[in-house]
Amino acid sequence: MSETTKFLLDEKRIPEAWYNIQADLAEPLPPVIHPGTGQPIGPDDLAPLFPMALIGQEVSQERWIEIPDPIREVYRLWRPTPLYRARRLERVLDTPAHIYYKYEGVSPVGSHKPNTAIAQAFYNREEGIRALTTETGAGQWGSSLALACSFFDMSCEVYMVKVSYTQKPYRRSIMRAFGADVYASPSERTNAGRSILEQAPDSPGSLGIAISEAVEVAATSGGTKKYSLGSVLNHVLMHQTVIGLEALEQFEQAGEYPDVAIGCAGGGSNFAGFALPFVRNNIVEGKSTRIVAAEPTACPTLTKGSYLYDFGDTAATTPLIKMFTLGHSFIPAPVHAGGLRYHGMAPIVSALHDRGLIEAVAATQNAVFDAAVQFARAEAILPAPEAAHAIKVAIDEALRAKEEGESRVIAFNLSGHGHFDMGAYDEYFAGNLPDFEYDAEEVEKAIAGLSA
Amino acid sequence: MSETTKFLLDEKRIPEAWYNIQADLAEPLPPVIHPGTGQPIGPDDLAPLFPMALIGQEVSQERWIEIPDPIREVYRLWRPTPLYRARRLERVLDTPAHIYYKYEGVSPVGSHKPNTAIAQAFYNREEGIRALTTETGAGQWGSSLALACSFFDMSCEVYMVKVSYTQKPYRRSIMRAFGADVYASPSERTNAGRSILEQAPDSPGSLGIAISEAVEVAATSGGTKKYSLGSVLNHVLMHQTVIGLEALEQFEQAGEYPDVAIGCAGGGSNFAGFALPFVRNNIVEGKSTRIVAAEPTACPTLTKGSYLYDFGDTAATTPLIKMFTLGHSFIPAPVHAGGLRYHGMAPIVSALHDRGLIEAVAATQNAVFDAAVQFARAEAILPAPEAAHAIKVAIDEALRAKEEGESRVIAFNLSGHGHFDMGAYDEYFAGNLPDFEYDAEEVEKAIAGLSA
Predict the structure, then answer these.
(1) What is the CATH number of the domain that holds B99?
(2) Is there a domain that residue B19 lies in?
(3) From A253, A329, A384, A402, which residue has the greatest number of CB atoms within 10 Å?
(4) Burial (CB count within 10 angstroms: exposed 0-12, middle 13-18, buried 19+), residue A13
(5) Which of B78, B147, B177 sits opposite A425 (nearest CB)?
(6) What is the ipTM of this complex?
(7) Per-residue b/e over B174-190, b at no fewer than 16 CB within 10 Å?
(8) Which pTM was predicted?
């Protein structure tokens, strides 16, 4: 047999601390602004929704935040995740490049999302909270929080975008198997939901509406329920850094170091979780890894958006966050990579992009599925459509290396498997998959009036 | 953190040989009989369907059969699979027992089936065959063979039971993603299919019919296509012994040895793959592990069947095999554990049961799903309904240990995850899952006329 395919770490090597890049930024992140007062928000503004421990992590300037043992105890059901050398893909591409991927699909719900779900449930439970609310689109995040709540003996209330609730019954079933209550959103359970249903009884729902419902339930619970978010926020990205920290150790095993590190970016959490430790080494240790975010042309937040203060949700109820945005009223075309259909981008990722510390590339839907199928037939894993964006960029890099006749170490994060997305593959094979471009005029309208 | 959860092996520890229990049986297996001549069949009878290498393995008396490097190369995409200590389940059950499970769901298609699919594709390819045919019920086996054919650059033709073809579109999509041609069976492509469709245009199909179609296509291909079977045969069980061989090494790491080893049994391949190395240690090294096969009360082949010569398929076209059987005309009730709905049992497993070397237990459907959900909420993995039969028996053993106030090491094979079976969980939570018992009179009729 030839050399190693999987770089594994013993569960004792699960990182003992998360990495907080805020400690290594030359300039701090721009403040989050209260839309009413125009002033930076403080912990009290967030307290109705989040436990104090997470609010503290959101603004912490500490470089390392210790991971509590009960969280590491759960992590080790599937962590450390493997780092693969894609030897079969390299042969198919006939490239001198070495391709590696970190595989987060080995988690029990098939993506990186439980890395933060477990942490968020834990900290809420520590502060006496027994119930969490959240929204979910396709269901990746909802099933992760359902799992986390089940493990910390909490109840979980998930508002699932109605069209996905109907189209992806299996994700709903997983949430129920872990004991969560799942409601199609818009629902009759909240003012937000009822007011939408009055105007549009057949509304298919949206992530924006579902957020409004989940937030309302927490905010009006008299403190008994808190709200949980699966991406965008600083503490969420930080919890995901276990991915990149493990990868660093695994590259040591492999005796190589990435020239390029790639992740797909929707809200930014899996991209950041994988990439931030490499960004740190660029900043602090003088490394020069190119860090590339992959996004869909249907929702090209980093490649075509603007760095402005905008709302995090469609309904414009959250604080104002400085981020790359297409405008909170921009509705991305229905690409199958539902996790990448977000008008904005995590403030940390946005700041890194604005400061020239990371790059971004957009890809069209069919090109992404071409890459997904090429990958699957070489490496056997069927990727989620989101993760396939990272594959597409990695394959392009490997082919460029071949053209240039140069070796190169390419690493990407395979954030999840596609077991619940096979309908998208069907459409692809049937030739029914549209290639969407964003509408530049629509974006221009959507960002009008936003300020820097 | 407390002690180890996952016992991992480096990919260099993938076994170098499969274990063939025929070498350690006190008496040989009863011969397979040609239904026309009444005489034992020879290699020539099987040559139209199988390559000579596999026919040789089927009857080999060698204890160890070397695993060719190209097969081990593919195995290491997911092997060695982890052995888990179910510490969280132990706490929930409050049992003094130590519970371990070997997890085969980490394979790219989510079950143990690729262990033999890869081997079968390889040996066919070595003998110049470029196309394989097979049948599949729910799709586990079909997707494994599709993967294997994709890896060895072969075409793959899968006849999928029509009712599953309609109800489980995602499994079909996986096969297509790996490049296989998938046909709903009965199809218009074969005499067998056409004759069924003439009589019953709306036939939902059955595994028996799909086997007839796949066999016909291979048998009438003039030697260009061979047929591949996912269970029952001796060489298939042997390929699966990588499971138990790895587990033995992992138990050495754990410093324990199973008092009980459990697997679910349909055709017998995952059960045997896990259990045979432990059976060997019972026979050869004087160990005394109880070996338990778990089956559904809807299809209680080992617990209620008889040890007789019977056909392997419903249409009565195969050679006669001595096995535990409910009669080849017995149609099991539609339990969701489709992989356990087989009227017979692998000859090796049948002989071990007849000789008192293994035990068997049957469980009802709701009890099995109770166990599946209890397991998922403790260990995070959503098991396939088939594998949940093993979980049910393991939990019962652990509770018995608690009653008796005795420690005990319980091991089971978790043969696959349930990502494509969530519809069954939905029915369970809705309270719509029937508990089936087999019909003793029907079985009596079905075995009438069979001989020992």
Answers:
(1) 3.40.50.1100
(2) no
(3) A384
(4) middle
(5) B177
(6) 0.94
(7) bbbbbbbebbbbbbebb
(8) 0.96
Choose among B73, B373, B379: nearest Cβ to A1.
Answer: B73
Task: Give the three-state DSSP class for A391.
Answer: helix
- Per-residue model confidence as pLDDT tens for chain A (452 residues): 458 899 999 999 999 999 999 999 999 999 999 999 999 999 999 999 999 999 999 999 999 999 999 999 999 999 999 999 999 999 999 999 999 999 999 999 999 999 999 999 999 999 999 999 999 988 999 999 999 999 999 999 999 999 889 878 889 999 999 999 999 999 999 999 999 999 999 988 888 889 889 999 999 999 999 999 999 999 999 999 999 999 999 999 999 999 999 999 999 999 999 999 999 999 999 999 999 999 999 999 999 999 999 999 887 888 999 999 999 988 888 888 888 988 999 999 999 999 999 999 999 999 999 999 999 999 999 999 999 999 999 999 999 999 999 999 999 999 999 998 898 999 999 999 999 999 999 999 999 999 99
Contact A419 B419 (CB under 8 A): yes
Number of domains in chain A: 1
CB A242, CB A273: distance < 8 Å:
yes
Q: Calculate how close chain A gets to B316, using CA atoms only, in Å.
A: 36
Taking an 8 Å cut-off on Cβ atoms, the answer to whether B179 and A377 are in contact is yes
From the list B77, B380, B426, which residue is nearest A108 (CB)? B380
Residue A8 distance to chain B (closest CA, Å): 8
- Exposed/middle/buried for B391, CB within 10 Å: 0-12, 13-18, 19+? buried
Q: How far is the first Cα of chain B from the last one, in angstroms, to the nearest whole number?
A: 57
Return d(Cα B222, Cα B131) in angstroms, integer.
12
Nearest CA in chain A to B144: A380
Cα distances (angstroms) measured from residue A93 to each of A292, A331, A359, B75, B349: 20, 36, 24, 21, 44
CA dihedral A178→A180→A182→A187, nearest 10 degrees, is 180
* Å between B383 CA and nearest CA of chain A: 10
Residue A19 placed within a domain: no
**Is A341 domain-assigned?**
yes
Residues 6+ apart with CB under 8 A from B401: B95, B96, B97, B407, B408, B410
Domain that holds residue A429: 6-13+68-110+235-447
Task: Search chain A and give the residue with CA nearest B369.
Answer: A177
The reply to whether residue B382 touches residue A1, judged by beta carbons under 8 angstroms, is no
Phi, psi of A141 (to 5 degrees): -70, -45
Q: Which of A178, A422, A426 sits opposite B376 (nearest CB)?
A: A178
How many residues are given for chain B?
Answer: 452
Residues of A in Cβ contact (< 8 Å) with B379: 77
- Of A123, A116, A331, residue with least CA distance to A232: A116
Q: Which of B74, B377, B423 sits opposite A150 (nearest CB)?
A: B377
Measuring CA to CA, which residue among B71, B107, B88 is closest to residue B387? B107
Chains A–B, number of C-beta pairs less than 8 Å apart: 114
CA-nearest residue of chain B to A150?
B377
Min Cα–Cα distance to chain B from A352, Å: 35
Per-residue buried b or exposed e for A316-327, using 16+ beta carbons within 10 Å of the residue's own CB: ebbbbbbbbbbb
If you search the block for the tokens 């049986």, which residue do you land on?
B25
In a domain, residue A403? The reply is yes
Cα separation, B327 vs A92, in Å, equals 48
User: How many of the other CB atoms lie within 10 Å of CB of B367?
Assistant: 16
The CA distances from residue B187 to A430, B155, B171, B204, in Å, are 21, 19, 18, 11
CB contact under 8 A, A376 and B110: no
Nearest partner of A379 among A105, A78, A138, A111, judged by Cα: A105
Residue B66, min C-alpha distance to chain A (Å) = 14
